[in-house]
Amino acid sequence: MTIPIVKTAIESEEVSVIDALKLAFVADPATRWVWPNPQKYLSNFSRFAKAFGGKAFACQTAHYVGNYSGAALWLPPNVHPDVDLLTALLQISGSEEARKDGPEIFEKMNSYHPNEPHWYLPLLGVDPLHHGKGFGSVLIKYTIVTCDQDNKFAYLESSNPKNIPFYERHGFELLGTIQVNTSPPIFPMLRKPQKL
Hints:
By secondary structure, the protein is α+β, with helices and mostly antiparallel strands. It contains 8 helices and 7 strands; from the N terminus they run E-H-H-H-H-E-E-H-H-E-H-E-H-E-E. It has helices at about 15-25, 30-35, 40-55, 55-60, 85-95, 95-110, 135-150, 165-170, and strands spanning about 5-10, 60-65, 70-75, 120-125, 155-160, 175, 185-190.
């Protein structure tokens, strides 16, 4: 099996990359807790992805493999999600529970971020049609090599407990569990830079 080539998305590919993530997150526990209604999920996910990780396109740290079979939006050190936009989107379109508990979840997520400059992975996903082909591993390795070269931490929150072993295989350690009332658990994970 040939190893897929990771490509850096240009701004004209933003819709295709976000569509790949939309397919990847269609059964994600946290995302669907926010939008349990299928139409609301489909109509709001793109705005969510842009607010959460969209700055990756301008930073040239949005990557994809294959024919948009999988994608990752990484935010380099000192680049952050647009939390105000995320909160506003949640209040306008999210489920009643998400509107009530979302701000506290974002606050708890923020409290786990390392204090020092670090790479942040808001979104990584593979189209379910292409699961098991190693696309997720190729996408994550592409940037953690840079983290190791630059001696920087990498941080993420896994919104699906099934993905924790995947991230652990790539050097991430579980820091705790974030859960507010009826929300599904979210798992903050940190990867220390490793010697090359």
